[in-house]
Amino acid sequence: MAEKISKRELAAARKARAERLTSEIKSVVKGSGWTGKLAYQLAYRNNNGMFAAVEYSQRDPDLNSGLKFQCRVKPMDIDPLLWQILHIDGNERQPLSFRSVGAFTATPLQVECVEVLESDLSVAAAGFREFLDRCSVFNPSALPDFADRVAAIRKQDRRALFELHVVSLILEGRFPEAGVLAEEGLVERWSSKHAYYAEDAAKGNYKTRPFAEMALRWIGETTAKR
């Protein structure tokens, strides 16, 4: 009969494995053209105008059954426009990694996901380096129909990636479609981001408004100036 492992021993083994994994990932990220944010288990870069973040995780820390890699992307102009709509100043001065881990950022679109069924962490980490190289091709020219790709994902879950969809439509100059989607999102309460206007705050009113409402106002004001 196999000896039963205590919860404390299991936790210690899991922690040790996670530390070894961090060390292995750090070594393969170095010199790859990507920057590691290993506390968040990801690497990121600007792919010539497309923000790309690659996340890694253990498939099952207790069974040593390999790693899972996910690549998520969004145009570099997405977040600055989102912040403009939400009247949020200062975020553009944050480091690039903020676009993946920071608050009030658009959730990026997943474009690749693989699982490496390898218990040897050095071999699995080498697979991560290969995955980074694969994800280096995701730039704006490789994904010209970005808003439509987001729309295809949202058919499965209408609440998912709502802000990303609206802003990507605006970036592509599809203002009427963005307005219709924002109106639908306002009715259905799809907004995951809420903020307040500076003019309201100046009057002592800090009532937050959903992204959909603020997007509709931004679209209306912007189209009126065109």
Please explain how this structure is put together.
This protein is α+β, with helices and mostly antiparallel strands. The protein is 46% helix and 17% strand. It is built from nine helices and seven strands. The strands form two sheets. The protein has a five-stranded antiparallel sheet. A hairpin with a 3-residue loop joins strand 2 and strand 3. Helix 5 (146-154) runs antiparallel to helix 6, helix 6 (162-171) packs antiparallel against helix 7 and helix 6 (162-171) runs parallel beside helix 9. The chain is elongated and about 70 Å long.
Topology:
Elements: H1 7-29, E1 35-37, E2 42-46, E3 50-58, E4 67-75, H2 78-85, H3 98-101, E5 109-116, H4 121-135, H5 146-154, H6 162-171, H7 175-188, E6 194-195, H8 198-202, E7 209-210, H9 211-225
Antiparallel strand pairs: 1-2, 2-3, 3-4, 4-5, 6-7
The rough form would be described as: elongated
The SSE string, one letter per element, is: HEEEEHHEHHHHEHEH
Strand content range: 15-25%
Strand order of the largest sheet: 1-2-3-4-5
Contiguous helical run count: 9
Summarize the main sheet. Answer: 5 strands, antiparallel
Mean pLDDT: 92
* End-to-end CA span: 76 Å
Give the class from helix and strand content and strand pairing: alpha+beta
Residue share in helix: 40-55%
Number of strands: 7
Radius of gyration, whole Å: 21 Å
List keywords for this structure.
alpha+beta; 7 strands; 226 residues; 46% helix; two-stranded antiparallel sheet
